[in-house]
């Protein structure tokens, strides 16, 4: 019986670690997406300003 409990604990720890790793990866990707979105927004603003200058000229 204790052998089965040990195997269950090992398996549980394995799945908890895997889930934790996946959550960390998701958080990192989510953070990177936010950064890229901000960069993209800034680039779009820059393009709009330059286009406005061209129209005025």
Architecture overview:
By secondary structure, this protein is mainly alpha-helical. The mean pLDDT is 94. Helices cover 96% and strands 0% of the residues. It is rod-shaped. It has one domain. It is built from 1 helix and no strands.
DSSP summary: helix tally: 1
Shape designation: rod-shaped
Helix and strand element order: H
What composes the largest sheet? none
Mean pLDDT: 94
The structural class is mainly alpha
Unreliable segments of 5+ consecutive residues: none
Question: What is the straight-line distance between the termini?
Answer: 84 Å
Taking all Cα atoms into account, the compactness measure Rg is 25 Å
How much of the sequence lies in strands comes to under 5%
- Fraction of residues in helix: over 70%
How many beta-strand runs? 0
- The total number of structural domains is 1
């Amino acid at each position: 019986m204790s052998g089965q409990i040990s195997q269950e604990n090992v398996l549980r720890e394995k799945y908890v670690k895997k889930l934790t790793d996946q959550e960390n990866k998701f958080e990192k990707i989510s953070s990177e997406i936010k950064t890229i979105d901000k960069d993209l927004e800034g680039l779009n603003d820059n393009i709009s300003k330059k286009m406005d200058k061209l129209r005025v000229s």
